[in-house]
């Protein structure tokens, strides 16, 4: 975690901000505290994106979708201000490194850690899929290793399954190296696409190497217009 910089907000609604957790194409992420002392990760949208009506609409949809997901292995939404200026969303703060930080080519996860990781991530996807949502960007940097188990974060490009099935051909959303073939081709995706990404993440954890080469792990790509940018572009790990 970095200290707040000159010009950074010190409060968002009832949350007092204490430090910076990360930043990306979508916005900045801060560590905040509720009046009761609860730690949260507060994601604030860049002002230039907040001025785009289409982005505002999409962000409201993302907040609604994220609120529906709960489970022991996800980071639930605590509060949000989709109509504030700038828009923001706060999730439970997860104290732990990301999988991408914890694993290296010379130090993959030990064998006895793989089964709990696999079971936790499968349960997280089940919670997401139960709400008829897709994550669509499951990757090592979106998996946090908390003391009591993994957490899947960043539902920024989650979409309702019905809407996903209508995605136009040629639109690819996700992270190279961890997306399914149909997702990379910009075709319609469904539940199997997330399962494919889960397999790729587990292969990375077990070997320390990306299973499909050294594509940009921390940067998502999309053929959509700038107004449709999403939280997949945020590189924050929410780790101290």
UniProtKB/TrEMBL annotation:
Give the EC number(s) under which this enzyme is classified: 2.7.11.1
Presence of the UniProt keyword Ribonucleoprotein in the record: no
Domain Protein kinase, by residue range, is 15-240
Pfam families reported in the protein's UniProt record: Pkinase
Stored PROSITE patterns = PROTEIN_KINASE_ATP, PROTEIN_KINASE_DOM, PROTEIN_KINASE_ST
Which key words are in the record? ATP-binding, Kinase, Nucleotide-binding, Transferase
The GO molecular function terms of this record are: protein serine/threonine kinase activity
InterPro entries from the xrefs? Kinase-like_dom_sf (IPR011009), Prot_kinase_dom (IPR000719), Protein_kinase_ATP_BS (IPR017441), Ser/Thr_kinase_AS (IPR008271)
Sequence positions that bind ATP: 43
Q: What SMART domains does UniProt report for this protein, alphabetically? A: S_TKc
Q: Which PANTHER family match?
A: MITOGEN-ACTIVATED PROTEIN KINASE KINASE KINASE 20-RELATED, SERINE_THREONINE-PROTEIN KINASE YBDM-RELATED
In Swiss-Prot or TrEMBL terms, this protein is called Serine/threonine-protein kinase
- What is the organism field in this record? Streptomyces sanglieri
Lineage of the organism: Bacteria, Bacillati, Actinomycetota, Actinomycetes, Kitasatosporales
């Amino acid at each position: 975690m970095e200290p707040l910089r000159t010009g950074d907000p010190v409060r968002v609604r009832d949350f007092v901000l204490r430090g910076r957790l990360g930043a990306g194409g979508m916005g900045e992420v801060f560590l905040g505290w509720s009046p009761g002392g609860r730690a949260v990760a507060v994601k604030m949208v860049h002002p230039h994106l907040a001025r785009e009506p289409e982005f505002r609409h999409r962000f409201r949809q993302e907040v609604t979708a994220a609120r529906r997901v709960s489970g022991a292995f996800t980071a639930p939404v605590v509060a949000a201000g989709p109509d504030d200026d700038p828009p923001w969303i706060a999730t439970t703060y997860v104290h732990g490194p990301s999988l991408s930080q914890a694993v290296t080519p010379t130090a993959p996860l030990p064998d006895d850690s793989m089964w709990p990781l696999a079971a936790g991530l499968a349960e997280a996807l089940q919670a997401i899929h139960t709400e008829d949502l897709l994550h669509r960007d499951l990757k090592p940097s979106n998996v946090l290793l908390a003391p009591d188990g993994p957490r899947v974060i960043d539902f920024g490009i989650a979409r309702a399954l019905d809407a996903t099935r209508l995605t136009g051909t040629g639109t690819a959303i996700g992270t190279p190296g961890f997306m399914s073939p149909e997702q990379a081709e910009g075709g319609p995706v469904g539940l199997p696409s997330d399962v494919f990404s889960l397999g790729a993440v587990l292969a990375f954890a077990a070997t320390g190497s990306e299973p499909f080469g050294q594509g940009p792990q921390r940067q998502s790509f999309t053929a959509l217009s700038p107004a449709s940018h999403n939280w997949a572009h945020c590189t924050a790990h929410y780790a101290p």
